[in-house]
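Table 4 source record.
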Amino acid sequence: FMIEFHSKRFYLRELTVKDASPLYLSWLNDVHSRRFIAFRQDSIEELQQYIQSHIKEPHTLFLGIFCRNTQVHIGNVKFFFLDPNREEFSMGIMVGDKTWQGKGVAGEVLSLFSIYAKDHYGSKKMILQVETANASAVRAYEKMGFKVTEVIVEPPAYTMVLDFSDLK
């Protein structure tokens, strides 16, 4: 069955190869965004292969973020469970649609999934790495309750953790 979550403004659902669109590809080639993208694809075919490889991965949930009002794909979030009990997972998010950047998408999406992961899997922590140069992302994560637990020298980045026992 396909996993799907709904928040006030968005819904998240598992990505399929059909989501490998010119729009999605354009986010990866955006001059500003590409600095912060670890794995970039250069064609629709590569993007389809990338999505397909994550669909088959049992420890990964690769979800598209879609606007509830318009059904437009505006970004993605990937959760990778770090242990078989799913107590801890790492996360990466990309809000590709520029009109949604800086509008609280990450906060809304990550709180929605945090509650689901805590209730459904018994997850205890969400972990992420963010480049120190991505100041707006660092601020957004801190606002959500993430705390810096490690400073990485090369490339300059923070490891940040959201402990679910701190959630209300």
